[in-house]
Design brief:
By secondary structure, this protein is mainly α. It is built from five helices and no strands.
Length: 286
């Protein structure tokens, strides 16, 4: 039975070592997945922080767009008021005919805005450009006609000055709008990259959880066998102790019987050697 228990214990030790090896391997994998996940989460945060920086810049440029657009519109409105006054005087003095400069200017502005903001086919783009050129030529001729009148010429000069100043603000509007769009695109790209990296980090986390669960299961099995081995050790130690006690008891009986035989020889007058005398002394016969 002792031999059988010792053999079984050795098998358990072998299995426990295998569980320990598998546990360590899966813990190593879990550690690698965890490290990669943390690296990706760090990249995600960096991308989001960068995207927020781009958002801040975009918003700053959008504010510049709004401020310059407001100034441009104010100047255009003043110019339109001057053109309206020119038109009023023109009608009063019956100078020129047809559409007013104010109407032509508004239509030109409208078509130019359409050209800048809408996506048109080549054919429609060409037609729009031709229409704008035609209106500008009409505006130029009517302006030259009205400038024959010195009072109207003065007003038209004021209106043109306001339009030129508004044009400078319009350039800034376009400049800041382009910059705002540039940083908006960068922001969107960063957020998209962050989403991709975050998805990869989530995948690494799932692998980490699987690896950790596998490692925990092997560790559980390892601990279970360790307990079984300790129980085997207790039984084996008990059996060995029992065997030792039984052997000592048997040896003691045999030792006593041997002493009794020597003592019988002593009483019979036989000659004893030193070892025999020592045996009788240890056994209490002398």
């Amino acid at each position: 039975m002792l031999k059988e228990l010792q053999d079984k214990k050795q098998n358990y030790l072998k299995d426990a070592e295998e569980f320990k090896k598998n546990r360590n391997e899966w813990n190593s994998k879990a550690s690698a997945f965890s490290k990669r996940r943390d690296e990706l989460n760090k990249q995600t945060k960096e991308l989001i922080d960068k995207a927020q920086e781009y958002r801040t810049k975009r918003d700053e440029f959008n504010n510049q767009v709004s401020e310059n657009k407001e100034k441009r519109n104010e100047l255009n409105e003043k110019a339109n008021e001057v053109y309206a006054r020119v038109d009023s005087l023109r009608k009063k003095d019956n100078i020129g005919s047809g559409r007013s400069l104010n109407e032509l200017r508004k239509e030109i502005d409208h078509l130019e805005f359409k050209q800048q903001t809408e996506v048109l086919t080549t054919e429609k783009e060409r037609a729009l450009v031709d229409k704008i050129s035609e209106l500008k030529e009409e505006f130029k001729k009517k302006k030259e006609q009205l400038e024959q009148n010195q009072e109207l010429k003065s007003f038209l000069g004021d209106a043109q000055g306001l339009r030129d100043e508004a044009s400078e603000f319009h350039k800034k509007v376009k400049e800041y709008a382009d910059l705002a769009q540039e940083y908006h695109d960068k922001m969107i790209e960063c957020f998209r990259d962050a989403d991709k990296v975050r998805a990869e980090a989530d995948a690494q986390h799932k692998e980490f959880v699987k690896a950790q669960e596998a490692a925990d299961e092997y560790h559980k099995q390892f601990l279970k066998l360790q307990k079984e081995i300790r129980d085997f050790d207790k039984v084996i130690v008990g059996l060995k102790k029992k065997a030792k006690t039984e052997k000592e008891s048997k040896d003691k009986v045999e030792y006593k019987k041997q002493a009794e035989d020597v003592f019988a020889q002593f009483k019979a007058g036989e000659k004893l050697n030193t070892e025999d005398l020592l045996l009788l002394q240890r056994s209490g016969f002398l």
